[in-house]
Each structure stands twice: as C-alpha cells, then as structure tokens.
Design brief:
Number of strands: 7
Order of helices and strands: EHHEEHHEEEE
CATH class: Alpha Beta
Radius of gyration: 14 Å
Number of helices: 4
Strand content: 25-35%
CATH architecture: Roll
Length: 152
C-alpha cells in the first residue's frame, strides 16, 4: 500500500534505531495518528508549503536528520537544509512525495518506529525521480506525534 508522507531530498527521512525484542505492537489509534501526521506533511510538501511540511518534526534543537552525506541536528538546521535543496518551496523543485510503509512498531507509550520506502517524483530538470528506504522515530509530544529522528 502506498502512503503519502513528508519528504526530504534525495534521501528522505528518518534515523536508524535499534528495536529490542520487547517492542510492543502498535495500537491502531497510534498508527492512525502518526499516519495522519505523515499524510498532512506529504500534502504540504506536494503543495510546495515547506513550513507546513516541517510540522511533522519536533521543533527542537535535538532532533536529527541523517542521509548518505550529512548528519544535521536541530529543527532550524533541518528546515534550512530543505529550503536550500528544494528551492524554498517551488512545487516543481519539490515534486510529489509518497511513502510505502513497510513496518510500524510502537515502542512504549510515547515512541514509535516507522520503516518505509519513499518515492519522490520530480521532472528531470529538478533531479528526476528518487526512491529509497527511510526510517523515522516518532515521539508523542504536547503538540502530537512528531519526528525526532529521520534517516534516509
């Protein structure tokens, strides 16, 4: 099943996190809540609204984004990276993002681990299509479920 999600650049999102054998099954309401955050973020991405897209991230200096060439810490630095890579909100440069969920695990009451495959469709002039694996660590915050670690 293909699901929309927020996206990052040529990579896309998450952080590799070890999951112990004590991981608990995800409650349907938790998975649904996180899917709603991802869907809203992808819709924002697909409409070129980078600031609304960033709503999926915890607005914290301690969140982490990892890709093949960078480790970036903090909400503001991640926002700046997306702005530089994707033309500050041009829908042509940003393209259309979706994510296939491969695995979803709730880890305790306040954390969830998502493994997926992202698909970013862009025309050749803006880098072409990109696809790959992604992992995300979500944390329940007062604002709702937010990404605290993103690896693509």
């Amino acid at each position: 099943m293909t699901r929309s999600i927020m996206a990052a650049g040529a990579g896309a999102i998450a952080m590799v996190v070890g999951v112990s054998s004590g991981a608990v099954a995800a409650a349907p309401s938790t998975q649904g809540s996180i899917q709603a955050v991802m869907d809203a973020s992808a819709a924002a991405w697909n409409s070129g609204d980078l600031d609304r897209f960033m709503g999926c991230y915890d607005k914290s200096p301690t969140i982490t984004y990892v890709n093949a060439t960078h480790v970036i810490h903090g909400y503001d630095a991640i926002r700046a990276m997306y702005g530089e890579r994707f033309g500050g909100g041009s829908t042509a440069a940003m393209g259309q993002l979706s994510l296939e969920i491969v695995d979803f695990r709730q880890i305790g009451a306040d954390h969830a681990y998502v493994v997926g495959r992202f698909h970013l469709h862009r025309d050749a002039a803006h880098g072409g299509d990109t696809t790959g694996p992604t992992t995300l660590l979500f944390k329940r915050t007062p604002a709702g479920w937010r990404i605290i670690a993103d690896h693509s």
